[in-house]
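Posting for a labmate who doesn't have an account.
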Amino acid sequence: MLRFYIPFLVLAIALGACTNTDSSAQKAAESNKGTESAQNAPTAAEATQYPSLPFDTLKAIWEQCDYIDYVFFYESFSVNQSQKPDIQAALQHISSEVPVIDPSCNRPVARIFYQVKGENRLEADLYFDSKCVFFLFYNKGQKAYANKMTPSGLKFFQNIYGASQQMKQSGN
């Protein structure tokens, strides 16, 4: 049981430290240096930035969520999770860092539904391609928060897409 609280504590501390959006934007820009040159980087006027998902919201989902459903828009499958350890591992895919969203990031690949006893408590669009890797969360049907994806999240979704490609190639 303790192993579930330690990652949550680390996540809580990390999210609590993200009160200065300027430093988050700076970190986001620095982490993207390897994938895009300074010439092609969007200017502040062109880019969009949302605040981080509030810690209280993430904490409530951590404690109460009993089902996550990933509905992929351009694939012939969906993924769901209903075991508490899997759900909490999935929540650890949400980085405390806030992305600077390039205007070309306009096509989410999936919608994620975080449910408690059959009721959607949180929804997010998943952006996952070579340039756009983040979660865009909704509040009352409106885009409200955004967070980068952690390396473990990147690996998780790469594995999902890898398995999908293998199934397509084998004809299943």
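Reply:
Got it, the structure tokens are right above this. The chain has five helices and six strands.
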